[in-house]
Each structure stands twice: as structure tokens, then as C-alpha cells.
Specification:
21% of the residues lie in helices and 37% in strands.
């Protein structure tokens, strides 16, 4: 069920709110934080994985099955850095939890560059580790992170 609570407009607060929605398994609520023409990029995406998602609908299709594959439980070591651009933050974090299908631990380091305008995500560059999808026990099935 999408979150109906109002969301913060400041980039750092909106980013933290989005992480809380992901931990709550509220993917529709997270998607609702996006501008219609939002852009999500994965600069380190391995071959065969999307490097760019254009528009909220494409982002929604990519993220919709996420909680079916990865049970996120925490984002330890979260650091959100303000930038010279008041609409943009850089976040460093780890996402930890379990892979749903196998029960194996999930522990992924991320750096994200996030831009917010009018209280919505407009750009999100997600620098995740592509080597993790090749790790023993990894179960990043179609739709989870592809």
C-alpha cells in the first residue's frame, strides 16, 4: 500500500524518507517520490543490465519486484553529504538484509548522487558494485536489480 504521508522536500530528508519506505517494503510509496520524467542511472551496470531508466513508469517496472528478491533490513553507515547544488546530495551507505529466495546475506555498498526538484526525485545515479551479482549465493533474478 503506498504511503499517503506527505514527504519532505529537502533532498537529504527526501532521500532518508525514501530509504525508510524501502525498509518498510513500500516500493509503491518510494516510486511515488519520483517526478514523472525522473532519470535513474547505473554507471557500473554489468553487461545485460540496464544502465539507464527514463521516466517514473520505467523506474516503477524496475523496482516493483525488488522486495520479492531482497529483504532489506538496514542502511548502516549512512552518510548524506550536501553539495554546492542545493538540489543535489551524495549519499554513502550499505544496504543489508537477506536474499529472499536463498536466505543468503545481502550486503551491498552504494554511493548515490540524487537530485530533487519540487519535492520529487528527478535524477538518481546509483553506483553499486556489479561484482556482487557474480558472488556465490547471489540471487539477483530478473526484475530485482536488472
Amino acid at each position: 500500500m503506498p504511503s499517503s504521508a506527505p514527504h519532505p522536500a529537502a533532498p537529504a530528508a527526501l532521500f532518508r524518507h525514501g530509504l525508510r519506505l524501502l525498509l518498510d517494503k513500500d516500493v509503491p510509496g518510494w516510486i511515488a517520490l519520483w517526478a514523472e520524467d525522473g532519470l535513474m542511472e547505473f554507471p557500473f551496470a554489468p553487461p545485460g543490465w540496464p544502465g539507464r531508466l527514463e521516466g517514473r513508469d520505467a523506474i516503477a517496472a524496475y523496482m516493483r519486484p525488488y522486495a520479492d528478491h531482497i529483504d532489506l533490513r538496514d542502511f548502516p553507515e549512512l552518510r548524506v553529504h550536501e553539495t554546492a547544488d542545493p538540489d543535489t546530495v551524495v549519499a554513502e551507505m550499505r544496504g543489508v538484509g537477506r536474499l529472499v529466495k536463498t536466505g543468503e546475506p545481502f550486503d551491498m555498498a552504494y554511493i548515490a548522487v540524487v537530485t530533487v526538484r519540487d519535492g520529487r526525485f528527478t535524477a538518481y545515479r546509483d553506483y553499486w558494485n556489479p561484482l556482487a551479482v557474480q558472488a556465490p549465493g547471489a540471487d539477483f533474478t530478473e526484475g530485482a536489480t536488472r
